[in-house]
Amino acid sequence: MQIINQIKQDIFSANGKLIDNFYLIREKRGVHVYKCVYDGISAVVKYFENEDDKREIKNYRILKKHNIPTIRILAYGFSSIVMEDITVSDNWRLGIAEDLHDADIAESLADWYFTFHENGISVTGLKTLYFEYDEITEENIKMLCKKFPEATDTFSYIITKHDKLRKLIDKPSYTLVYNDFYWTNFIVQKDKRQAIVFDYNLLGKGYRYSDIRNVCSSLSEEAGKIFVDEYNRLYVNKYGMNRTKEEYTEKQIDDICGPLFSLIYHVKPKIDFESGNLPEWVKEISDGTLLHRAKKLLE
């Protein structure tokens, strides 16, 4: 009841409108999501207890300012955001697991991501946004070395080359990246002609390649190929050339930094190196593959 009262006060203070009839959808680590009635219509409200999570409110504003399609926002509070209830929409539906195999939806997602990346280049203050690879610090690598002695050679090498790695990380051009693609995080027009990704808590700056890789890791192989083909078609149509050179540089960095970031991110709960069912990116760290890649790039 306390959270509900805080949401009511937050929205009323922001725009003087009433919000009521709350039904909890989910609550996780201080982010509360409710169905509700806002200004007389069905809606969904997200409330953020923690200051860091409130960046999502700012992120929705960034996307709107830069003409990037998002789920329709009905109200911005100081700690809350009220959005369209897709479950009662005539034109849209929530994503489902089967969408990850759908060619038409893969194409529509590529269209959204292309607009997202293209318009994201010009975001004011882009360099100040959240960046996953900022977590790859000497301190964090030393922490990994203590927790996972099986990969000491890899971590020790990364530490000795940390300054050079940081310079390489800043070499490619940045744009907005989503970082958190999955079927639970997008909506689809019922005719499949458009798809929109939502839930922007992990939105930040980064590389196109990393974002595309993140999408394709969830799509089926066929849908992933369609996504990449459509994205590349849009790029060539606009610029008259492909991104082969830029993509190669981004991939070299991502092949090293992606697994390192994932391991840092997943330290809690701890990943057991002795397990027989390790994620592929963990195996790459422990079996010397990542060390080989790092030496190839950093020597």
Gist of the model:
Helix content is 46%, strand content 17%. With 299 residues, the chain is of the alpha+beta class.
Question: What does this 3D model show about the protein?
Answer:
The structure is a single chain. This protein folds into 2 domains: 2-89, Phosphorylase Kinase, domain 1 (2-Layer Sandwich), CATH 3.30.200.20; 99-298, Aminoglycoside phosphotransferase (APH), C-terminal lobe (Aminoglycoside 3'-phosphotransferase, Chain: A, domain 2), CATH 3.90.1200. It contains 11 helices and 10 strands. It has helices spanning 2-15, 55-65, 103-120, 138-147, 152-160, 162-169, 208-216, 221-239, 244-265, 280-286, 289-298; strands at 19-28, 31-38, 41-48, 73-76, 80-84, 92-94, 175-177, 186-189, 195-197, 204-206. The strands form 3 sheets. It has a 5-stranded antiparallel sheet with strand order 1-2-3-5-4, with helices on one face. The protein starts with a helix and ends with a helix. The model has no long low-confidence stretch (mean pLDDT 93).
Mean pLDDT across all amino acids = 93
List the domain count as a whole number.
2
Helix tally equals: 11
Morphology call:
globular
Helix percentage range: 40-55%
| Rg value | 21 Å
SSE run: HEEEHEEEHHHHEEEEHHHHH
Largest sheet: 5 strands, antiparallel
**The named CATH superfamily of the largest domain:** Aminoglycoside phosphotransferase (APH), C-terminal lobe
Contiguous low-pLDDT stretches (5 residues minimum) are none
Strand order, sheet with most strands: 1-2-3-5-4
Which architecture of the largest domain does the CATH hierarchy give at level 2? Alpha-Beta Complex
CATH top-level class of the largest domain: Alpha Beta
Task: Give the strand content.
Answer: 15-25%
Distance from N terminus to C terminus (CA atoms, Å) equals: 58 Å
Structural class: alpha+beta
CATH topology of the largest domain: Aminoglycoside 3'-phosphotransferase, Chain: A, domain 2
Secondary structure tally: strands: 10
